[in-house]
Amino acid sequence: MRDLSLHLMDLVQNSITAGAALIKVSVFQKDDGLLGFMIEDDGCGMDEETREKALSPFGTSRTTRKVGLGIPLTREHALITGGSFDLESKKGQGTSLQAVFNTRHIDCQPLGNLGETLLTLILANPDTPDFVMTLSSEGAQESLDTRQIKEVLGEVPINDPAVVTWLMENINEMLNQTLGGVEK
What we know:
The structure is a single chain. By secondary structure, the protein is an alpha+beta fold. The protein has helices at 4-17, 48-54, 70-80, 114-124, 146-153, 161-178, and strands at residues 22-29, 34-41, 84-90, 94-102, 130-136, 141-145. A 6-stranded mixed beta sheet has the order 3-4-2-1-5-6. Helix 1 packs antiparallel against helix 3 (70-80) and helix 1 (4-17) runs parallel beside helix 4 (114-124). The protein is globular.
């Protein structure tokens, strides 16, 4: 994966595959150069054996191939920068994953186009799951909740062209207010 936003997209796809109805995505930036994301879902969760298998590149729950690299690559990229990685899950209750990257480390990948990634997640899943997306830095925090947006829209689909334009503008404004822009 070329950038951190693609890691985020891959990990959120795991939550979707796990049957999550609600996925909370938080992206945060600290003044000390740390950038992280947390994904919390209410999907099917994993037992300890499955969780350990998910951390290994040679273990996957997919039937289409015998390896799963999303979680192990994200973990490796976080740790190689001096960051951290945590994966917690309970069968039947959901999963929580946090990856923190030291952006000042030479091996840290760029953030990428986080705005496009967040918009793609919403538009690729217009009905379910719902998303709560939070962006924060030391001085600001912005959130977007697709449940609230859908309630206001009523019968208008969230992937209506006018709504898509509004969503992109809103996400870009959130990025400007918190992380200082669209692409890092």
